[in-house]
């Protein structure tokens, strides 16, 4: 599957896992993509000739907001949540906010208590998604897709082993691509460069923001081994506490510790982590296997609950436009629409509508959503307001370009491709179709 996908590319299905069937999707995080024992070459072949890059966009969401709103420059800002209200958490914050004690994962209320002057901004997922696509386009000029791994929305790995003669050439290239990304996007990125993925990921953190760090095989004991062992990819605070109890304090301690004790205490994961600490991570680029889309959708939780018909229609229209744009982006059409809403008391209602044709047209999807809304058994009222709504498009097929011709209906040939391009570049609200 190519990297140029909508945000659903950063999720992986867990359908076959009985425990996780409770949840429809699980976020692709280090737990699922860090090196696994099956990814390591247990013959311990020489991997020091490999060249891996790890790129991280510095406090991505906050930096994007600073770029687009120069008035925030030098001020503590965070993204996520809704100002001083009780809803929402800090998704990320800039370095000015971090200096004042704000951290990712805090509630907005706590962050405002720690830093009263904090400016909390809403998340603009569409804009961030567009920026990622543009940065991917820059990188793909130099790397084939099977040499790129999108680890999260703001992090990725590149394998340059077959592209660069040595790590010095790779370092020169890293400087060049950092300059190109800044010139085209006005965003700074930090890059870690090493002969394995684990060291490259750690190196990215050494000189943030706008840093470039290199870890070579010959200087790992000087640079990597003195670090606290929780700096290693995959060691969280609970495992770190257990390691401290075994007198494993630094990565050097972990690398040199008795492997039988490690195996007894942490199982096979402990062996994997020890090999990563030793620089024996031989895992390569993870390429997600191609699979057909089953569902495309969008949902939104509102800051202020609504109940008036015009406001609800406007919210549903916005979701339908975004879902239709995702369908067109992936060259798909849908034959079934699901609409669901959640009220203030956290109860749900919803329904589905089967189309008599396949489409990715905003108007047709919106009309189907209105039919569902009209037939809902429970509708939002002044005493039971709508807090969250969502739309799912299922029964997906490739778009062949064929359309049903309505004899008694005037067809509108709207330039959706041009409208989509504008929204990708300038945001979802740059242009909207009028409500009929």
Model description:
With 436 residues, the protein is of the alpha+beta class. Among the domains are: 60-124, MutS, DNA mismatch repair protein, domain I (3-Layer(aba) Sandwich), CATH 3.40.1170.60; 296-426, 2-Layer Sandwich (Dna Ligase, domain 1). It is built from 14 helices and 14 strands. The chain has helices at residues 30-33, 60-68, 95-99, 108-114, 125-139, 167-185, 197-204, 220-223, 237-245, 251-256, 259-277, 309-329, 362-374, 416-426; strands at residues 11-13, 25-27, 52-57, 77-79, 92-93, 119-121, 148-152, 155-159, 189-194, 212-215, 296-306, 332-343, 348-359, 386-398. Strands 7-8-3-9-10 form a five-stranded mixed beta sheet. A four-stranded antiparallel beta sheet has the order 11-14-12-13, with helices on one face. Strand 7 and strand 8 form a beta hairpin. Helix 5 crosses helix 14 (416-426). The chain starts with 10 loop residues before the first strand and ends in a 10-residue tail after the last helix.
């Amino acid at each position: 599957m190519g990297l140029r996908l909508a945000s659903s590319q950063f999720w992986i299905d867990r359908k076959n896992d009985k425990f996780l069937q409770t949840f429809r999707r699980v976020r692709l995080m280090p737990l699922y993509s860090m090196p696994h024992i099956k990814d390591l070459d247990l013959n311990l072949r020489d991997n020091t000739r490999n060249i891996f890059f790890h790129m991280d966009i510095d406090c991505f969401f906050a930096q994007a907001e600073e770029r687009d709103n120069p008035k925030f420059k030098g001020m503590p800002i965070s993204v996520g949540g809704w100002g001083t209200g009780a809803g929402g958490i800090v998704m990320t914050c800039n370095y000015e906010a971090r200096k004042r004690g704000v951290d990712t994962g805090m509630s907005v209320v706590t962050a405002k208590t720690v830093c009263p002057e904090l400016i909390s901004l809403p998340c603009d997922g569409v804009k961030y998604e567009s920026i990622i696509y543009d940065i991917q386009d820059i990188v793909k000029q130099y790397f084939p897709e099977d040499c790129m791994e999108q680890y999260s929305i703001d992090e990725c790995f590149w394998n340059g082993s077959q592209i660069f003669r040595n790590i010095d050439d790779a370092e020169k290239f890293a400087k060049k691509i950092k300059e190109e990304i800044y010139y085209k996007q006005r965003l700074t990125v930090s890059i870690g460069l090493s002969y394995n993925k684990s060291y490259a990921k750690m190196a990215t953190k050494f000189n943030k923001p706008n840093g470039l760090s290199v870890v070579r095989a010959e200087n790992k004991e000087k640079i990597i081994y003195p670090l606290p062992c929780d700096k290693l990819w995959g060691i969280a605070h609970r495992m770190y506490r257990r390691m401290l109890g075994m007198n494993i304090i630094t990565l050097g301690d972990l690398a040199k510790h008795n492997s039988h004790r490690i195996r007894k205490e942490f199982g096979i994961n402990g062996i994997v982590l020890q090999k990563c600490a030793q620089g024996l991570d031989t895992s390569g680029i993870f390429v997600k296997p191609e699979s057909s889309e089953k569902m495309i959708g969008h949902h939104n939780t509102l800051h202020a609950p609504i109940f008036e018909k015009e406001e609800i229609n406007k919210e549903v229209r916005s979701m339908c436009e975004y879902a239709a744009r995702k369908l067109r982006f992936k060259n798909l059409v849908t034959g079934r629409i699901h609409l669901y809403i959640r009220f203030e008391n956290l109860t749900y209602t919803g329904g589905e509508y089967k189309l008599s044709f396949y489409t990715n047209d905003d108007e047709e999807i919106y009309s189907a959503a209105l039919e569902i809304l009209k037939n809902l058994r429970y509708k939002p009222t002044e005493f039971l307001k709508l807090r969250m709504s969502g739309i799912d498009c299922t029964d997906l097929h490739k778009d062949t370009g064929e359309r049903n011709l309505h004899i008694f209906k005037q067809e509108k040939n709207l330039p959706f491709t041009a409208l989509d391009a504008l929204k990708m570049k300038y945001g979802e609200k740059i242009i909207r179709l009028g409500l009929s």
